[in-house]
Amino acid sequence: MQSVRQGSIHLFRLAGVDLYLHWSWFLVAAYEIESRKGRYSSVAWNALEYLALFSIVLMHEFGHALACRQVGGTANQIVLWPLGGVAYVNPPQRPGATLWSIAAGPLVNVVLLPVFVAAFMLSRSLGWAHAIPDAYQLLRAVMWIDVSLLVFNLMPIYPLDGGQILRSLLWFVLGRGRSLMVTTILGLLGIVGFFGLALWLRSFWFGAISVFMLMNCWGGLRHAQELLRIARLPRRGGFACPSCRTAPPLGAYWQCGQCGQPFDTFQTRGVCPHCAAQFAMTRCLDCGEQHPMNDWMVSAFAGVGMASGGLTIK
Question: Whole-prediction pTM value?
Answer without folding.
Answer: 0.81
